[in-house]
Amino acid sequence: MQDDRSAIRDLLENWAIWRDAGDWERFRTVWHEDGWMSATWFQGPAADFIRVSREGWDKGVSILHFLGGISIDLAGARAIAQTKMTISQRATVHDVACDVVCTGRFYDFLEKRDGRWGVVWRQPIYEKDRIDPIDPAAALRLDAQVLAGFPEGYRHLAYIQERIGYRVKRDMPGLKGPEVTALYAKGRAWLEGAALPERT
Question: Fewest C-beta atoms under 10 Å: which of 21, 41, 61, 91?
């Protein structure tokens, strides 16, 4: 069992390193063929996520991931892993260069197939975020009405992402609420052998 936990931990750490380093071929290996990514700005097959991430990388989109503690629930060839994480994105907002930092968890549905663990579905949980000008003397004024239209856990991240052209999903799981409660229920069902739930 410890070998499985170590393999899953390596996989989750490699996800962040290889994604942020633009090591796309190795990044592809952390997913199963039917893997799915759900994020604020993208929801779809892992293969498409890799493609659009690479396109963003080539255009200078700056998104970095930092990981903390990992909790793994194992049930035979299935697992649910929760990983504390921070997403850091840099962009220009209203002519001011800014960093947005969003703290939360990666909630991963994993499966061991032919002796290899892989991600079947990654659903981030967005807990809280903030935005700061890179120059502390710069004056940043956000549109309060637009900002209030995004969920609390990732409203600044959503604000910056929509400013650079992405369409952000409005019902992602946060620290509390029906979305995260439903996600936990799907995770328990996955560990008990249920079919993979609809991924959105």
Answer: 21
DSSP string, 107-164: EEEEEEETTEEEEEEEEEEEEEEEEEESSTT------HHHHHTS-GGGHHHHHHHHHT
**Total domains in the fold of the chain:** 1
Nearest to 91 by CA among 103, 81, 100: 100
134 burial level (CB within 10 Å; 0-12, 13-18, 19+): exposed
**What are the tens digits of pLDDT across the range 34-52?**
999 999 999 999 999 999 9
Given a contact cutoff of 8 angstroms between Cβ atoms, the answer to whether 88 and 63 are in contact is yes
Tokens for 38, please give them: 């759900």
- CATH number at 137 reads 3.10.450.50
CA 70 to chain centre: 14
Tell me whether residue 194 is in a domain: no
Q: Which residues lie below 8 Å from residue 20, measured CB to CB, with a gap of 6+?
A: 63, 64, 65
